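Table S2 (text version). Query chain:
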Amino acid sequence: MEENGKQNNDNQNNNGKKPQNRSFIFMLVVSIGMTLLFFYAYSRYQTSQQVEISYSQFLDMLDKGEVAKVRIYSSSLEIVPKTDKKSKTAMKKTYYATRISDLKLVDRLEKAKQKGELDYTAVDESNTAMIGNILSWVLMIGVFYVIIWLFMRSMSKSGGMMGVGKSNAKMYVEKKTGVTFADVAGQEESKESLKEMVDFLHNPKKYLEIGAKLPKGALLVGPPGTGKTLLAKAVAGEANVPFFSLSGSDFVELYVGVGASRVRDLFKQANSMAPCIIFIDEIDAIGRSRDSKYGGGDSEREQTLNQLLSEMDGFDTSKGIVILAATNRPEVLDKALLRPGRFDRRVIVEKPDLKGRIETLKVHAKNVKMDETVDFKELALATSGAVGADLANIINEAALAAVKAGREYVNQSDLFESVEVVFAGKEKKDRILSKQEKQIVAYHETGHALCIALQKHTEPVQKITIIPRTMGSLGYVMQVPEEEKYLNTQAEMEADIVTFLAGRAAEAIKFPSVTTGASNDIEQATNMARRMITMYGMSDEFGMVALESVQNRYLDGRSVMNCSEETATKIDDEVRRIIKESYQKAYDLLKANESVLDALAKFLIEKETITGKEFMKIYAEITGENLKAATEDGQEVDSAVENMEQAVEAERNTEPEADEEAERNAESEADEEAGVVESTELSEGEHKEE
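Corresponding structure-token output:
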């Protein structure tokens, strides 16, 4: 293997001399030609500006003082007239006359020169002048050569003089990539498919004995950030064979035919270095369908694609050449590119599940000092839907936060704060809300959280905050699922819609006018209601009919309607019905628990941030429901509960009567005898614990 590589390098070095010599000769010939063209054009221009006159006319001009300069040659005179100030032409014509033997001419010119009327010079036409002319030619040829060399160098991105059509693929080996399958977590199925290809490159004999053929190519498909390029680099690190890596956009050039030429050169290099791996990232740049539906008609791109198809059919798999490609738009690729025999395998690189996220977090955190209290499972539950790039960013943001706080280790609070930073943005400490806006936001977010607690099919609350974030939110409620789920029931989706609309319902209950703060909630509720009708068959009106299809599944997941305008109108009516009923349900829930809403909102205004455990503790104590409460911050939460109970009790008894007070005192005495601890409001700012 090493000997073959040396031979190939030697051959490349020996053969490289001829192209360099050819390039030198080509550029020299072009430079000489351009110099000849330049001097020819200059002489023609000079000739066009010269007018022949007689010697007597010259003397007449000399007597009239119309001559500015005279150049005396052996057989001719060059006369430059004085410039006419009234003339608007930039260039002035020159005259030449045949020289006649005149002994008095020099004397007349000398006298005129002394008077300052003109200037004259005698031109040296000896060998020295000829040498000067030759040097001027050589200098001009050198200038044109440098210009052409710089131009060709800028046009050739591969570094050669004439390398416009050469492939600019980067070649990696194991030592340069530094990535193996151990560095890729959460993609076990994808790694298993690629491990077989790597094993074939290492041990082809055991596969050939049974009659198996090496797959020509594997297409890595998945959303951005899932690790497609990382998997390809891991293959390079594991295979320990030459690894050519380039992007699909590297083939596309201004000149038609360059892309096809680079494809040919790439496969020529690969054949000489076999066994090897070719990786084309973002292959949709050249592999786009030739159908006009997906933007076909580009001749350069089509030529490049045709050449790629031809090369993939032409090379011998027994040599051990494997093609890997990555894309997040498989729906736009040409069908001829995806058939077996070209890309035999489609490796799906999906978003990691709960186990995959845990393993991914461990991989990215192996070089980060973590506190012993860090729980990756809890963090993985809070990052449902995150890809590998997101998780790596979360770990890094947590490490930066620990350094900023002056700690040597990353703790759990740093990790959860980094989750908020990645998905919601940093806290905008400079944005100070007015008292009224702060109150509105508090009731809005409390409405979301309270509806979550009042409904059965919802995820528990992790955090409530009214601190503005850089991504535009003035506050939010964070939910964390208790376990990983892959399916959503209709009841859960309906509960989510009610939760989305609870913020607007809380504003409508407590304030005379609603605000614009519910715009994102309305958008999410509408989209979910529409998906229930058009995609999930959760509507009695339409039943199980697919009315929308998803495009760009691995990018934005944009849906396209597949129905008539009449049906679309009925869908809109059904969406409005669902939204109206869900809003009314949220309104009724909050109205029935308005006192709890007030108490929680007041506490949120005071604290600005409530953890999920604090929220459930306060909610359980106020409502009297036996729910699991937090125990970590017991004292702080208990005192908060007492304050909330007193606030609620004060609102309920704004005008207490004497008999009601006596009854309350009697109940208090009875509770004291039974050993029940309760807080009672005595006066403003005074509390008594019994």
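Notes on Table S2: The chain has 24 helices and 18 strands. The domain at 354-424 is CATH 1.10.8.60 (Helicase, Ruva Protein; domain 3).
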